[in-house]
Design goal:
Number of helices: 10
Number of domains: 2
CATH architecture of the largest domain: 3-Layer(aba) Sandwich
Strand content: 5-15%
Radius of gyration: 19 Å
CATH class of the largest domain: Alpha Beta
CATH topology of the largest domain: Rossmann fold
Helix content: 40-55%
Structural class: alpha/beta
Length: about 240
């Protein structure tokens, strides 16, 4: 007799009962088709990333960060234009968390957001001036998408042109109450005004930093460089 349930694991509830609580069934992530990933511009490397497979280290309070991101979705704070500024060293999982948030917004709220690595976006816009795709179309999509992830913002010194483009995107989204999820390796503002500390404020100006600090909750993400640790594991495996 054929089962009346589509998923025999969770019986279409979307959740699996565990000793310590529940976890999302893998069938929930099958609902994200390749066309959805394409629309959201999520790179292949990150398409399987979610909150369940993020490696949590309580020492760095990763569980509290994930709880905060889930609360953000459940409380629908994105409707007020609120977002996050995930800051930390390279390889600690900022992009993983940002993509997981974007996917959860789709699965729970049916919101189709947009992911862009900042450098890739600027390169695409610059290339569009030569012809195939209109820079206006790209900009309109980035400005108007319900939720925007700008990954690795401020990772390099910006030209005047790049700074103007990013100003345009951020100011328009700020004015229209459209949330931004930003990841960065540098602080939003210098912690000590007397020191010449590198910050997004220094690279993009105080006007942008002020707007971002108003609408983006700063979430420091700490931990070990997971990319480096995985590379080390591979090297040790090959050498053994």
């Amino acid at each position: 007799m054929k089962s009346k349930y589509t998923c025999p694991i969770c019986q279409d509830t979307g959740w699996i009962q565990l000793k310590g609580g529940v976890k999302k069934c893998s069938c929930q992530f099958r609902n994200m088709s390749s066309s959805i990933y394409k629309r959201m511009n999520i790179p292949k490397r990150y398409q399987e990333k979610n909150f369940d497979n993020f490696i949590i280290n309580k020492k760095y309070k990763h569980h509290l960060i994930i709880k905060r991101l889930k609360d953000y979705i459940n409380l629908e704070e994105y409707k007020k234009g609120k977002g996050f500024f995930l800051v930390g060293k390279p390889g600690v999982g900022k992009t993983h968390l940002a993509v997981a948030l974007l996917k959860e917004l789709f699965l729970k709220k049916n919101i189709v957001g947009l992911f862009y690595d900042t450098r890739s976006l600027l390169f695409k816009l610059k290339a569009s001036f030569d012809g195939s795709e209109s820079s206006r179309e790209i900009l309109e999509e980035v400005v108007n998408t319900p939720v925007l992830i700008l990954d690795d913002l401020g990772s390099e010194r910006l030209s005047d042109w790049a700074r103007d483009i990013l100003h345009y995107i951020i100011i328009n989204r700020y004015n229209d109450l459209k949330p931004m999820i930003i990841t960065s390796n540098i602080e939003l503002k210098s912690k000590n005004e007397d020191e010449l500390e590198d910050s997004l404020e220094e690279r993009m100006g105080s006007a942008i930093a002020s707007r971002l600090s108003e609408v983006c909750e700063i979430l420091p993400v700490k931990g070990q460089d997971m990319r480096g640790s995985k590379l080390l594991e591979l090297q040790e495996t090959k050498g053994s």
